[in-house]
């Protein structure tokens, strides 16, 4: 079904990187007319008419004949032995069909344990003990959702509470063992290092300035509109399992299900319909999914499971929880020379982090950021505690958020320490444009960048020097105003597959394009949009390459029976991988189209040139064949000996990651009476290389900035000493609303990726990565003259008020 033109080198990025190509500009490149709507057009999203009319189709919209419902009994203890589970009262209820326990799963083929994304193991349902609060204990299956919900109240579980360890530093003492199922009787999961210790020690020994700071990035949790859910539909006669699931990675999940359950992979179909936000929370496999699938296997009926809000907030996909100790060295001229970082990573009761196997701490080792340092050394230790599995995701790229927060806070502390303006300090320390591709001290090769241009644009946009003047005047009057910068480097687009995998499956991604006789097209992808607008932007990439109007190209994702194998959407990888595959598949089609055009026009291929949507004879521009004419000919009048049809598939394994970046500037006013922080202005200049759709990118940045504001000022998952989640509802877990959000002022620079076929980098997570340190830096900037060096996020009024009181300002 694939037609590979052997003159196209399969994975050679086209065009190859040249110095001209990586020049930075402000101007979005547009080469097609609005009727075609290729790259650069502000095309309105094709998916929005159905979303804004309430016509999206989500997992909970799926209703199958005879469908049963599942609900889950959860543990009220963070650590306790299970003495007995008595389900008799629940089973006696009308409409209750089954209660599934860990013992049942064990009998069904050891399904009571499952692998996590980091090749650790996690209980599906417990037999001996529970290890975190709200852990799944057993599942009730009933004919109606409300009966299932009532029945879980009737299940009586006898627990014998065990001592609880919540603090990761305490856990490292191994006095309370979280995972006694493990051979190694310790809570210490792994130790990981990157960089050069000796070189770093030398740099520190020679330093004129050293600053040191403890930084905690608390546990947070994505709060997408849609919680997790599944409809599992096992057909006993066909031996076929059909699954509707809120999955960011349907193919990977299918493979995991096949390996864990023993069902043949071709008999498992996973369909991810519309998804109401993923943000990383729909990458892992949760116990609820497994129970739901088993329930359908056992009953032979379709079973639906939809999590409620509290279950979602209490039991799945926690991010961050990094306890960082950082040191930065600089020479006498204020040039950063070295970075030394030690981190304790609290993973909760299982290492379920969404990290590639090779990097247990994800891409945390990108922590030298945008600066040209001599040496760096990073140490991370992973540890179990009695909390739900953590280390998963919150619009991050494998821990880059933690890295960026740390380096941007440290850069600001150093700037203040040496008495330099934080902007000037950054300008001086940035990797210079002529240093790209840049090899970082921890081993990454940055593809392209121009950090100076982005910061300069942000400063001009916000009026930086005027703001500094205003700040000085206000400070003289005793008012607290701060200006914070974050000049971050992101790292997205996993693969390359030599370094990146999920449970061993290599991280490439795919596109398949079919052009119908009338010139309309269908394109399918291994990724899965959860709101990012892929139906629009992938169509624009194909439109750019083939000249078919984007409106004529139907994009499909999420059905493993029809889409080519791919690793899914997270880590802002869709554009760098599947977006590249779209361009490469389109180019294969164009190569075949050229042969057909040459045949139709009775000329040699070398006599033809491509022009937006057609091949024309060089020097004779009225001798043309449009892509539509060629498509028709591919089915009606193609050259003898050529296969009919016009289609191609591409599995794209990128040669490197892409390194988007940006400079954000926040201006805050701090109320010295209440400690309240108000973000007065926020300018975000992002650089994600060539832009496919500026409107979509702006939308991504708006949403992402709000998701960056959230952990900076509001969101934190808190446990008490017994491991009870104190923030399990939206009354306590504070999401920012339009009231708290400032007017985001966005803009861009464009520094293309030299190795990506269309020069694009990912952007989906940049704003969430870049925003928190800009805000934190702004608040500390407002308080530095009072002796405040650092505040951990979320920077709540209480924390600020206490800092002010300690500084003798109030109280
Ligand atoms: N884009 C573009 N030009 C570029 C880069 C991207 O026009 N140079 C467009 C893309 O075509 C795509 C969107 O921007 O439509 C995001 O692309 P990309 O940066 O490649 O990221 P992904 O599509 O892989 O999306 C993942 C990313 C992640 S990891 C999280 S978390 C997140 C995010 O996207 N979750 C989201 N944005 C989200 N937005 C919504 N609405 N919902 C989520 O769950
Ligand atoms: Cu890390 S959140 Mo996104 O990768 O789905």
Jot down its keywords.
811 residues; alpha+beta; seven-stranded mixed beta sheet; five-stranded mixed beta sheet; 19 helices; 32 strands; globular; disordered N terminus; binds pterin cytosine dinucleotide; binds CU(I)-S-MO(VI)(=O)OH cluster
Brief overview, please?
With 811 residues, this protein is α+β, with helices and mostly antiparallel strands.
Structural description of this entry:
The protein is of the alpha+beta class and 811 residues long. The protein has 19 helices and 32 strands. The strands form nine sheets. It has a seven-stranded mixed beta sheet, with helices on both faces. A five-stranded mixed beta sheet has the order 9-17-16-15-10, with helices on both faces. It has a four-stranded mixed beta sheet with strand order 20-30-31-32, with helices on both faces. Helix 17 (694-713) crosses helix 18 (766-783). The longest helix has 27 residues, at 575-601. It is globular and about 85 Å long. It starts with 47 loop residues before the first helix and ends in a 5-residue tail after the last helix. Residues 1-20 have low confidence and may be disordered. CU(I)-S-MO(VI)(=O)OH cluster binds next to loops.
Distinct compounds present: pterin cytosine dinucleotide, CU(I)-S-MO(VI)(=O)OH cluster
Strand residues, percent: 15-25%
Structure classification: alpha+beta
Total helices: the number is 19
Beta strand count: 32
Span between N and C termini? Answer: 74 Å
Across the major sheet, the strand order is 3-7-1-14-11-12-13
Shape: globular
Cα-based radius of gyration, to the nearest Å: 27 Å
The residue ranges in which pLDDT falls below 50 over 5 or more consecutive positions are 1-20
């Amino acid at each position: 079904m694939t037609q590979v033109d052997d003159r196209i080198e399969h994975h050679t990025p086209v065009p190859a990187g040249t110095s001209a190509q990586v020049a930075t500009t402000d101007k979005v490149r547009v080469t097609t007319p609005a009727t075609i709507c290729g790259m650069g057009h502000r095309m309105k999203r094709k998916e929005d008419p159905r979303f804004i009319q309430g016509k999206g189709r989500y997992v909970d919209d799926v209703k199958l004949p005879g469908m049963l419902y599942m609900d889950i009994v959860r543990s009220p203890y963070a650590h306790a032995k299970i003495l007995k589970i008595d389900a008799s009262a629940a089973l006696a209820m009308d409409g209750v069909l089954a209660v599934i326990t860990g013992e049942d799963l064990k009998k069904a083929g050891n399904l009571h344990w499952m692998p996590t994304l980091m090749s650790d193991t996690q209980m599906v349902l417990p037999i001996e003990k529970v290890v975190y609060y709200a852990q799944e204990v057993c599942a009730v299956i009933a004919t109606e959702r409300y009966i299932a919900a009532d029945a879980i109240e009737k299940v009586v579980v006898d627990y014998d509470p065990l001592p609880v360890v919540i603090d990761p530093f305490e856990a490292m003492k191994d006095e309370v063992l979280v995972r006694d199922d493990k051979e190694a009787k310790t809570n210490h999961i792994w130790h990981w290092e990157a960089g050069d210790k000796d070189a770093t020690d030398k740099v520190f020994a020679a330093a004129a300035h050293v600053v040191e700071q403890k930084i905690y990035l608390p546990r947070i949790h994505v709060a997408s509109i849609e919680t997790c859910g599944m409809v599992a539909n096992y057909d006993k006669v066909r031996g076929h399992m059909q699954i509707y699931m809120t999955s960011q990675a349907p193919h990977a999940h299918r493979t995991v299900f096949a390996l864990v359950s023993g069902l043949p992979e071709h008999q498992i179909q996973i369909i991810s319909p519309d998804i109401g936000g993923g943000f990383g929370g729909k990458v892992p496999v949760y116990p609820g999914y497994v129970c739901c699938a088993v329930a359908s296997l056992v009953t032979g009926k379709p079973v639906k499971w939809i999590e409620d809000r509290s279950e979602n907030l209490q039991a799945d996909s926690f991010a961050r929880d990094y306890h960082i100790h950082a040191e930065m060295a600089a020479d006498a001229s204020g040039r950063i020379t070295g970075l030394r970082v030690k981190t304790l990573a609290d993973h909760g009761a299982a290492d379920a982090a969404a990290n590639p196997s090779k990097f247990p701490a994800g891409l945390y080792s990108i922590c030298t950021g945008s600066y040209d340092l001599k040496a760096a050394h990073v140490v991370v230790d992973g540890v179990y505690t009695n909390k739900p599995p953590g280390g998963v995701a919150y619009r991050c790229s494998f821990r880059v958020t933690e890295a960026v927060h740390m380096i941007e806070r440290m850069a600001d502390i150093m700037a203040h320490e040496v008495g330099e303006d934080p902007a000037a300090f950054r300008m001086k320390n940035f990797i210079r444009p002529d240093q790209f591709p840049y090899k970082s001290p921890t081993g990454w090769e940055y593809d392209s960048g121009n950090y100076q241009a982005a910061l300069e644009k942000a400063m001009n946009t916000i009026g930086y020097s005027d703001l500094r003047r205003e700040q000085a005047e206000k400070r003289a009057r005793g008012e607290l105003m701060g200006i914070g910068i974050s000049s971050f480097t992101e790292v997205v687009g996993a693969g390359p597959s030599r370094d990146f995998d999920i449970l061993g499956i290599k991280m490439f991604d795919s596109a398949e394009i079919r052009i119908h006789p009338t010139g309309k097209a269908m394109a399918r992808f291994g990724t899965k949009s959860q709101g990012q607008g892929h139906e629009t932007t992938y169509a624009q990439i194909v439109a750019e390459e083939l000249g078919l109007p984007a409106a004529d190209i139907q994009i499909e994702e999420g059905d493993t029976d029809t889409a080519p194998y791919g690793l899914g959407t997270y880590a802002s990888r869709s554009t760098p991988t599947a977006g590249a595959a779209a361009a490469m598949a389109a180019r294969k089609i164009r190569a075949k189209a050229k042969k057909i055009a040459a045949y139709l026009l009775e000329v040699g291929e070398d006599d033809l040139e491509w022009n937006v949507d057609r091949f024309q004879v060089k020097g004779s521009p009225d001798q043309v064949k449009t892509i539509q004419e060629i498509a028709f000919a591919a089915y009606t009048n193609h050259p003898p000996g050529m296969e009919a049809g016009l289609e191609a598939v591409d599995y794209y394994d990128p040669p490197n990651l892409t390194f988007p970046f940006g400079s954000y500037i926040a201006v805050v006013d701090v109320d010295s009476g209440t400690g309240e922080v108000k973000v007065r202005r926020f300018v975000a200049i992002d650089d994600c290389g060539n832009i496919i759709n500026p409107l979509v990118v702006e939308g991504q940045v708006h949403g992402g900035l709000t998701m960056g504001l959230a952990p900076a000022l509001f969101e934190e998952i808190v446990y008490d000493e017994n491991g009870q989640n104190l923030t399990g509802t939206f009354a306590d877990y504070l999401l920012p609303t339009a009231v708290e959000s400032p007017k985001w002022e966005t803009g861009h620079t464009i520094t293309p990726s030299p190795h990506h076929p269309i020069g694009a980098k990912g952007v989906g997570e940049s704003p969430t990565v870049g925003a928190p340190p800009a805000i934190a830096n702004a608040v500390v900037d407002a308080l530095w003259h009072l002796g405040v060096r650092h505040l951990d996020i979320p920077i709540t009024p209480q924390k600020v008020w206490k800092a002010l009181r300690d500084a003798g300002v109030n109280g």
